[in-house]
Design brief:
The protein is of the alpha/beta class. The chain is 35% helix and 23% strand. Helix 2 links the parallel strand 1 and strand 2.
Length: 211
């Protein structure tokens, strides 16, 4: 099954997440693609939305392949299946690059406010799909250390391997479909346009205009 676009996927996810309506959940999107999804899901469930900042760590020479992921604190997950073929210098170089990206996003997204706190809240972390699960794992860890009451991973589509990776890091996983033939997230969408920095900022500004 293919989704029409991210908003179609978010509408379907919001139905699957309807048990959390009334709990005033905090819905966190992984930038940039999942931000419009998080906004819509938060609206449907009557909750707040915000961003959780993480970045994929690109495998040297194959940037489409994730060797791991990191959050804005610098906490890092590395794929153990790839660790033997990763040079420590390459890892350090990629981490330094992605940390600069995260710091720039943190300044852009939160320059005039604090991120919403997950403490003692039901938190739903949303992405548009999980190929390896690395970035979602980093996002879940970033939220988990802030002691939410309940931590939920919500995605439209994922590989079995990705689901197995993230399940230990949350209380519940909501996934609409599991696909073994997983090449890229975009293959499961009719339209998979990029969400640019201006769109991301507009979404976050709109969500917190009256906060």
């Amino acid at each position: 099954m293919k989704f029409l676009d991210r908003l179609d996927a978010a509408e379907q996810l919001s139905v699957a997440l309807s048990a959390y309506r009334g709990s005033f959940p905090l819905v966190l999107g992984i930038p940039r693609g999942a931000l419009p999804m998080a906004r819509l899901i938060a609206q449907r469930l009557g909750g707040d939305m915000d961003a959780v900042l993480v970045r994929k760590l690109r495998f040297p020479g194959a940037p489409e392949l994730a060797m791991g992921a990191m959050d804005a604190s610098g906490w890092t997950y590395l794929n153990p299946d790839l660790s033997a073929s990763i040079n420590a210098h390459d890892v350090a170089q990629e981490k330094a690059h992605q940390l600069k990206v995260l710091q720039a996003r943190e300044e852009a997204y939160f320059h005039d406010r604090e991120p919403l706190s997950p403490l003692d809240r039901t938190v739903i972390v949303v992405d548009d799909g999980l190929a390896t699960g690395a970035t979602m794992l980093a996002a879940l860890h970033s939220v988990w250390v802030q002691r939410p009451k309940t931590l939920v991973c919500a995605v439209p589509v994922a590989s079995p391997q990705a689901l197995a990776l993230v399940k230990p890091w949350c209380d519940t996983v909501v996934c609409l479909q599991t696909e073994t033939d997983f090449q890229a997230v975009g293959q499961f969408y009719e339209s998979f346009d990029q969400v640019d920095d201006m769109q991301a900022l507009n979404i976050l500004h709109g969500a917190h205009l009256h906060a």
